[in-house]
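JOB MANIFEST
job_type = single_chain_structure
chain_count = 1
residues = 437
[input]
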Amino acid sequence: MIYSSIFQKQMGKGILGALVGLLLLVFLAPTPPVKAEDKVIRLLGTVSQSGAAGNIGPAYDRAMRLAVKEINAAGIRGFSRVEYKVIDIETKPSVFSRKLRREVQIWKPDIAAGAALETTIRVPCKEAPKYKLPYFIGGHLSVTKYMPPGNVPVSKWVAYYGYASFFAGQLAGKFFHEMGAKRVAFLGGDYDWGYSNSLGLKDYWEKHGRPFEIVPVLYTPLDKTDYSTEVQIIKDAKPDALFCPYSGAGWFSAAKQLAAAGAKPKYFLYGTTYSNMGGAKITGVKGARNIYTLADHDPGSAAWKEFVKKWKAEYGKDAYPEAYTNNYYQAVYWAIKAFEIAGTKDHEKVMDTMLKTSFQNVCISPMGPLGPFGSNMGARAGIVKFEPGAGELDPSFGLHPVLVRIFTTPKMNIKQVMAQIKGKERLMQGKTYPRGK
């Protein structure tokens, strides 16, 4: 019994000693170092550098590169740097899907951005929730792709900079109404974006007593560059206003072709993709003179002037920010701010933080905070006019932009907008919409 008692005491002391030793090992052992790669935020640019959107995609890449360069130079709280990589999605959904899958499997991005036309924006709408990959689109929301028969998933994973294209169409109608237009022509791409814009224009027209006639209504294939047939139809119709949301590869030259034929209406309103002097320079002085365009920035603001100076310093004195470049530039800053606030690269936490986070520098509207499905609710829309005479930001070009209107869009999320347009018919080609009495 004595030996047993002594043995138990010795065993107790041994176990106690072992526990103390184990605790010392736990507390005194060096903490495993944080891997360098865990401090790197990987941003994947998915832009069309070729194909139907090859005329606007490269500018998105330049905008994101500029933002990343500045952010890395300034430093990121809690992270070492942003690593940026771009892939050409070729404006082909199948190519986009394949390349995105490869990058997710091999490069493992923490966030992705890009895509222009609704045909390719459908890809991240379907894939981002599957990969749980935060995604942002530096453009506006085309709602019709979410509607039957070709509906895609609605989720929090794809965040948009701006407002629904349905609202863009409504704003166009409001603008023409205010300007006293009597006959409005519509020229848009034969795809989701064109349809959504026409729905908005038609909705405003119906709800405000049909204040103008809508004729002709024209939809064109996205690969179209020669608008001679459409120009003649518009010339014969003699509208005093024309709304032209993005129509594809030849979109920037539509105004030039109309001007050359003496068919450009008094009030020519381009969609947001034209948005700044970059579009006007492509169109040329004659084609862009007195054009109005929906825009995301105030060309007279200090923030915009600073952005243009940075752009020229990076890409040459004759360069000028192109379509949506300010959106992508601002959205990169917004996304990195969300990473800083989240303090992690956990995609769920980052995405949830993005939905609650706001950032603004160069655009009229802040990027976020977003609605539950990634829509930038209540975003503001500007209308800019190109007037004769060179401006201070680009003295070599014979036009300068002037902000003439700002509208605030309704604070509605994607599903609320879908509910509003459900069952409505878009403007139909070949049909005339008469002015009310």
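[summary]
The chain has two domains: 38-163+323-356, 165-297+377-421.
Residues 2-28 form the longest helix (27 residues).
exit_status = 0
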